[in-house]
Structure formats: structure tokens, C-alpha cells
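Per-record layout

source: Mesorhizobium qingshengii
name: ABC transporter ATP-binding protein
length: 242
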Amino acid sequence: MNEQSSPVLEISSLSAGYGRFDVVRDIGLSVGKGEAVALLGPNGAGKTTVLRAIMGLVKQRRGLIRIGDTDVSDLPTHRIARGLAAIAPEGRRLFLDQSVEDNLLLGALHLRHDRTRVERLLTSVYDLFPVLRNYRHRLSSFLSGGEQQMVAIGRMLMSDPEIMLLDEPSVALSPVAVDIVVKAMLELRKRGASLLLVEQRIDVATRVCDRLYVMAHGEIVEEMTPEIVRSGGMSILNKYLG
Ligand SMILES: Nc1ncnc2c1ncn2[C@@H]1O[C@H](COP(=O)(O)OP(=O)(O)OP(=O)(O)O)[C@@H](O)[C@H]1O
């Protein structure tokens, strides 16, 4: 993390899970303002659960989650989604029977009384993904997987959040679409966004992020930088990722 900036997201001693079971335990991590951080790990390690806990989507959670100056540990999802955190979830979760623009506007529901701001945000999404401007009135079901991922990222941007959470945005996409998504994340970084990216692809995580946390069996087991990965850390990552 950039030493000068105070973290935009700070998690300490987080345990969370479903039913009676904690699937993540004693998680501590931070994301600085303007920083991009990756959560890597094998299937079932608990990465998505950490993102869901930040959004308040996992009922059973203990520990501290702070976004900016706000303790969100006990806040309901609809409060967190009002500009504190937003997620581009695994599987995208679009309303496929709705147009591209209607899906985007769903991200800005809490801003609907500020039409100027909503228009500005829409413009910024269409500048990031120009193809969506052409498809704005098209049903989302007619889009390719890559285009649907753009809508999911765009919907996240529409809430103008302090921290953006992306859950495996590269999964099941063509190489060309992965490249577009990576370039979009790099552009978001240029715009000053703070990102927490769940990834299985080490190449995507190292291209986009300043730091990488590795999760296994519900715990954070390593923290490294892309430089460390490139200078020998790959063998450590392979131990966990297979
Ligand atoms: N809604 C749920 N109810 C019960 N258990 C769940 C639920 N969602 C996830 N789990 C379990 O929690 C554990 C962690 O899942 P999670 O989705 O957080 O892992 P992940 O690291 O994101 O993996 P993947 O890459 O496969 O998505 C898994 O054992 C999973 O089966």
C-alpha cells in the first residue's frame, strides 16, 4: 500500500461464513486510495466470501470492515451500496431481459435525483466501453460474454463507489475480451479508482495490481508484489494455485 495514503478499505480479524460454518477466518487486508489489490487462490478458498462480506451479503460476519471513515461491519447491503462499495459479481448477474442502459442505471439508483451526476457517470462508462454506447438500447441477453462483463463493470462504476470489487472478471472470456477487461481496469486505475480484484489468473492480477494476497482454506497465507512474483515468487503461487 502507498504509505502516504490512508486505506480506503481496511479489514481486520474478519471471519465469515454460511450456516454454522466460518469459511473465511481471521482475514486482515487493506487497499489504499488509488491502489489495486488482488485476492488470488484456488477454488473454494473463500475469495468470493470476502467480497460478499464487504458488501454485507454474508450474514454471519465478525471483525472490522472499514471503508474510508465508515465502519460498515454492521451496515446492511443497501447502505454499503450507496457509494461505499460496489461489486461486479461472479457470473455478472445482469437483468438479461433489460436493456444495457437500464442495467447500468440500476447501479445509480441511490443517485437518481441527481440527473447531472447520473449522466456524467453514464458518459464515463460509455467512454470506457464505447461499444456499450452503440448497444445502449439493446437487450443484455443479446450481448457476448465480454460485453456482458463490460455492463457488469459499468453498473459497478455507476454507483461511484469508494472501493470497487471485481470477482473474476476474466473468467470464461476470449483472449480479446480479457484484454479489453484488463485495459479497462488499468484505465480505472488512471482515473484514481481503488480496486479489490478476485482472480485465478496470475497474469491478469500481476498486470493490474500493486499487491497480491493469496488465500487458501479460508485464510490469507501470503502477501506479495508482482515484482516478487516475477523474480521467483511464482513457485510459491503455484504451490497454492496448482
Ligand atoms: N451460499 C453458500 N452456502 C454455503 N456454503 C457456501 C456458500 N457459498 C460458498 N460456500 C462455500 O464456501 C467456501 C468458499 O467459497 P467461495 O465462493 O468464497 O470461494 P472462492 O475462493 O471464491 O472460490 P471460487 O473461485 O470457486 O469462486 C466453499 O467451500 C463454498 O462451497
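summary: The pocket of adenosine-5'-triphosphate is lined by residues 18, 23, 41, 43-49, 90 (CB under 6 Å). The mean pLDDT is 93.
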